Amino acid sequence: VEADYRIFNIKQLKTGYKFDLKTPTNKFSKIKINQIGEHNLSNILCALAMADQVGVPLDAALKSLISFPGVHRRMNLFKWGEKLLIDDYAHHPTEIESVLKTLQSFYSKQQKCVIFQPHLFSRTQDFYEDFLNVLSQFDEVVLLDIYPARELPIEGISSSRMIEDLNHFNKKLIDKTMISKTITESEAKVFALIGAGDIGEEIQLLKSQNLAK
């Protein structure tokens, strides 16, 4: 049974998607969005369905999509020189895996580096092996120190230990002030900057540096 609202004929673009939309009363073709990740397609479909149900003209709603920048720190893309940076709030292994799969789908031929700031000692401990597994699938792994938030350190749980235990030949631990230098010196072309701590502040600095160039 077909849904009342659905998107179909989905095609990947360089930094987003093109698709068609079916509603109970109409069809729209060649809609473009500038966000990557299948969750964004689901979110947009739900938003358009709700807009249609409350009487918002879909022609106007669809036109606004092309300029919609996306949700803050959810697969936000921006260029930094010749590098492509993806800013995401992911702080759980399954969220990191979702980011990775999206990058593999869009940028399969390019080297991908993850710059990850673990969030909470307890979460790092609880999902330790899962973190190691998903991080090891990137071409390059860069870790920041664990962001403690409300917690005190847990003995034996640290980013330095994660680096030691990570089964990867291209890995390192850096201070957050070294992010820009690390990106510049890396051979990777695509970077996932992820975490729920103050890495977000460093990403804003990168964006401001980009604007100043």
What is the compact description of this entry?
By secondary structure, the protein is α/β, with parallel strands linked by helices.
Describe this structure in words.
The chain has 213 residues and is of the alpha/beta class. The chain has two domains: 60 residues, no CATH class; 137 residues, Mur ligase, C-terminal domain (Protein-Tyrosine Phosphatase, Chain A, Alpha-Beta Complex). 38% of the residues lie in helices and 23% in strands. The protein has eight helices and nine strands. Strands 4-5-9-6-7-8 form a six-stranded mixed β-sheet, sandwiched between helices. Helix 3 packs parallel to helix 5. The longest helix has 16 residues. The protein is elongated. It starts with 5 loop residues before the first strand and ends with a helix. The relative contact order is 0.14. The model has no long low-confidence stretch (mean pLDDT 91).
Topology:
Elements: E1 6-13, E2 16-22, E3 27-33, H1 38-53, H2 58-65, E4 76-80, E5 83-88, H3 93-106, E6 112-116, H4 121-126, H5 128-135, E7 140-143, H6 159-165, E8 171-173, H7 179-185, E9 190-194, H8 199-212
Parallel strand pairs: 5-9, 6-7, 6-9, 7-8
Antiparallel strand pairs: 1-2, 2-3, 4-5
Helix pairs in contact: 3-5
CATH architecture of the largest domain: Alpha-Beta Complex
Query: Mind describing the biggest β-sheet?
Result: 6 strands, mixed
- The N- and C-terminal alpha carbons lie at a distance of 53 Å
In N-to-C order, the SSE pattern is EEEHHEEHEHHEHEHEH
Mean pLDDT, rounded to whole units?
Answer: 91
According to DSSP, the number of beta strands is: 9
**Poorly predicted sequence stretches spanning 5 or more consecutive residues:** none
> Looking at CATH, which topology of the largest domain would you report?
Protein-Tyrosine Phosphatase, Chain A
**What would CATH call the class of the largest domain?**
Alpha Beta
The percentage helix is 25-40%
Annotated CATH homologous superfamily of the largest domain? Mur ligase, C-terminal domain
How many individual helices?
Answer: 8
